[in-house]
């Protein structure tokens, strides 16, 4: 009876694993399908784009749509603008989040809990609430219609400070005290001792920040005020929508979207190991 029970138990476990694996595969396919469809559609000819029922895989892949995109929008300029906005903003968020997170995690000062609670409270404010006040501040210092005006208000982030504070809290105090005894400055401790200890969290925050600000639309559109030379790729792509009145131009729109998604995708490929490590570390701490 015990052997029979053991075999039934193993079969049940294998069945459970198979079910979980199947569900994970279905979720992965559903998540990846829009991206795959976008790339395949960008390679279709106009005739294949108009065909009903739709053609799943192009019979004669063509890069014609990618050539036409550059004739509608300045792809290189727009990509460079997006790269500047996302890169500088991400760097600023990493520095300010690490410094503030370190202070909240390892310093003891009056009002620390209250200040941190107010900071967390700002995370629940919809971005549209702060849009007009921020716009007026940027205008008052003369940064309208400039990339600096887009970047400056986003150099600090409440979520980044919260994330860094949670991870830095796990760094042993004895390690920091030993560095202080050896004469290390607070900045040296932060960037040479604390930062390597929370590298997965830094990588995850960098990925979140870069993707968010690469895809940001409303704030750049509000600040730049028609300065097309400073438009990031996401705003420039909106010009392609006028070309999507018929299926014949679907490939053009999909080609532009494919170009826009490449940098964040490449960044994720490089940082995915750290991203997964940060999730595992959070689960273990929880």
From TrEMBL:
Residue spans making up a coiled coil are none
Entry annotated with the keyword Transport: yes
GO cellular component assignments: plasma membrane
SUPFAM superfamilies documented for this protein: MetI-like
Membrane-spanning ranges: 20-40, 83-105, 114-135, 147-168, 189-214, 247-271
State a single Pfam family of this protein. Answer: BPD_transp_1
The record describes its membrane topology as: Multi-pass membrane protein
Secretion signal: which residues?
none
Keyword Cell membrane present in the record's keywords: the answer is yes
Q: What is this protein called?
A: Carbohydrate ABC transporter permease
Q: Which organism is it from?
A: Pseudaminobacter soli
